[in-house]
């Protein structure tokens, strides 16, 4: 598939997926969601890809879902839509490898919600993040009311959702919405640097560690602990576990094969 609204680049095990509708601040329409879904399912299945970075470049991440596309929709249109955003977000969230959102400029509405399906968020100093849906007479409908409170707690999430206010990168860091803040011109480099740290780890252990966290968050603690234990046990069937522990004992870096 030839993408028109995103750019996908794969280098040294790291796939960078760049949103590319600069004329509308990377507003997310159905085409973007469909292309994101298509790319995510390909990257998930490609063993040469070990980490995925989602970004909009140094100016803007995404100013939300495309308001022009939504403005005249009826309740029936919205209800019977095959919901491409849900499919794209689900494929990204369940990607069996780490996903990093590298955020510069606006990450609003659906743009902010897109960052919430990534595992890790890095913000540039110029980032402005928010859920302004309330100002449009709607609510965050692409996971914002569910994922944001799980990430930063319901009090802070409700303040953002009820006010529609944008917060700057340092405030996003303070409330745990992003993992780190970096100078804007270093955003791509910092995301690459973090991705490289993950590329060096065992792919199966990473996959199961991500699954243990994500699935565990949907369960009560006892069930989560049991699921963690099953993931842990399974890793003893991998060559990577043998190599990792042997390398430690032999005082050398491990060379993981991802099996
Ligand atoms: N949609 C469409 N076009 C947009 C846009 C958007 N979200 N954001 C910006 N643009 C367009 C502008 O219309 C303008 O186009 P032209 O007038 O040049 O043709 C161009 O991008 C540049 O924008 P501005 O001229 O407005 O630039 P400023 O620097 O003055 O302002 C801004 C930047 C980000 C503060 C402003 O553009 C703005 O407020 N944008 C809208 C932000 C917003 O409200 N975002 C939330 C959208 S609602 C769901 C799926 C998804 C969603 C919900 C449910 N389901 C499937 C259930 C998500 C909903 C949303 O995200």
Description of the molecule:
The chain starts with 5 loop residues before the first strand and ends in a 10-residue tail after the last helix. It has 2 domains: 6-199, 2-enoyl-CoA Hydratase, Chain A, domain 1, CATH 3.90.226.10; 203-249, Lyase 2-enoyl-coa Hydratase, Chain  A, domain 2 (Orthogonal Bundle). The chain has helices at 30-45, 67-70, 75-80, 84-93, 110-116, 144-152, 154-163, 169-174, 187-199, 203-216, 221-235, 239-249; strands at 6-11, 14-19, 51-55, 99-103, 106-108, 120-124, 128-130, 166-168, 180-182. 47% of the residues lie in helices and 15% in strands. α1 links the parallel β2 (14-19) and β3. The model has no long low-confidence stretch (mean pLDDT 97). The strands form 2 sheets. The protein has a 6-stranded mixed beta sheet, sandwiched between helices. It is built from 12 helices and 9 strands. The protein has 259 residues and is of the alpha/beta class. Bound molecules: 4-(N,N-dimethylamino)cinnamoyl-COA (DAK). The site of 4-(N,N-dimethylamino)cinnamoyl-COA (DAK) has 21 residues, from α2, α4 and β5.
